[in-house]
Amino acid sequence: AKESGRNNYQFFTTELNVRAQHRYALETNLRRALTEQEFLVYYQPKISLETSRIVGAEALVRWQMPGMGLIPPTEFIPISEEIGLILPLGRWVLEQVCRQTCAWRAHLAPDIVVSVNISPKQFQDPSLCKFIEHTLQETKLPPSALQLEITEGLLMGELDLLLPVFESIKKLGVSISLDDFGTGFSSLSYLQRFPIDNLKIDRSFIHKIPANQDSVVLTHAIIAMAKALGMSVTAEGVENAEQMLFLTDSGCQEMQGFYFSQPLPVEQFEKLLQNNRQL
Ligand code: C2E
Ligand code: CA
Ligand code: CA
Ligand code: CA
């Protein structure tokens, strides 16, 4: 018993070491990644139910570390937030997206709206709005072509500090979507206080419909609430026809998920736009 206890302990410390080393490697390489141009933006289409066509996309960042393949954002966004890289990285993503969207609007999809994930750290950056304004001017992208996706947790911050940021973003003409909706703690009053244009139903609910009654009830409630408050609704994580049909019947206007398409690199996303394919 003693023997195996020691083995377990050794295994455990080795495992911890491996993880610490992995984290250290990520952190060191992350600091260089931006100047080495190792980040990529993928795009996942958003489909309008009315037309069955692509009306938008969500920009999702990837990290191509040499010799390491494609690293998903769940592995490096939290570290980027901790080491302060999220501000320059977030700006880089915004700029890429504005440029790309402008090109697509000119040649492939005149009305496409692209959304960018904004982490709370970025939202708290006092120069965010100025940067967006500047980037829109520079790229000549109409503000209505850009949407920011923020998470519910952000709304828990100080109202006096947050509200002016929301208002200046709205004043630019950029829209705001509340991501992962239903997983946080926002109440109806929060939704009324902040100028939010779109609710994005979290994929944990979508995943369980139509089998799970609680998820069904919640999804219906979110859609009804959004309508009552004059917001549009997007369902994320739609993976099969059953979910798609349920959401259609429930009056959800916009969907996104593997059922339609994975997030794609630029060239592949462009092929979808070119075909204007009914996904
Ligand atoms: P998110 O904003 O909730 O993005 C949706 C995630 O769900 C994406 O993961 C996407 O690939 C995945 N997804 C899409 N459709 C399906 C589906 O049908 N089934 C399932 N199971 N998953 C689906 P991804 O690309 O790994 O991004 C993870 C998270 O990283 C994002 O979650 C977002 O919070 C963050 N993130 C990504 N790009 C950025 C960025 O540029 N800036 C910031 N601040 N965060 C980002
Ligand atoms: Ca998102
Ligand atoms: Ca989400
Ligand atoms: Ca999420």
Textual characterization of the structure:
Helix 3 runs parallel beside helix 5. The model has no long low-confidence stretch (mean pLDDT 91). The longest helix has 32 residues. The chain is 51% helix and 19% strand. One calcium ion binds next to strand 6. This is EAL domain-containing protein. It comes from Undibacterium jejuense.
Record the strand order, biggest sheet. Answer: 1-2-4-5-6-7-8-9
Overall shape: it is: globular
Strand content: 15-25%
What is the element string, with H for helices and E for strands?
HEEEHHEHHEHEHEHHEHEH
**Structural category:** alpha/beta
**Radius of gyration based on Cα positions:** 20 Å
Continuous helix count? 11
Largest sheet, strands/sense/barrel? 8 strands, mixed, barrel
Helix content: 40-55%
Low-confidence stretches: none
**Overall residue-averaged pLDDT value:** 91
* Separation, N- and C-terminal Cα atoms: 59 Å
Total strands: 9
* Quaternary structure of the protein: single chain
Bound compounds, each kind once, are: ligand C2E, calcium ion
Quick rundown:
It contains eleven helices and nine strands. With 279 residues, the chain is α/β, with parallel strands linked by helices.
In terms of topology, how is this protein built?
Layout: H1 2-33, E1 39-48, E2 53-65, E3 69-71, H2 73-82, H3 86-107, E4 113-117, H4 120-123, H5 128-139, E5 146-151, H6 159-172, E6 175-181, H7 188-193, E7 198-201, H8 203-208, H9 213-228, E8 232-235, H10 241-250, E9 254-255, H11 266-275
Parallel strand pairs: 2-4, 4-5, 5-6, 6-7, 7-8, 8-9
Antiparallel strand pairs: 1-2, 1-9, 2-3
Helix pairs in contact: 3-5
Bound molecules: ligand C2E and calcium ion (CA) (3 copies).
Residues 44, 60-61, 72-74, 77, 90, 93, 117, 119, 149, 179-180, 203, 236-239, 257-258, 263 line the site of ligand C2E.
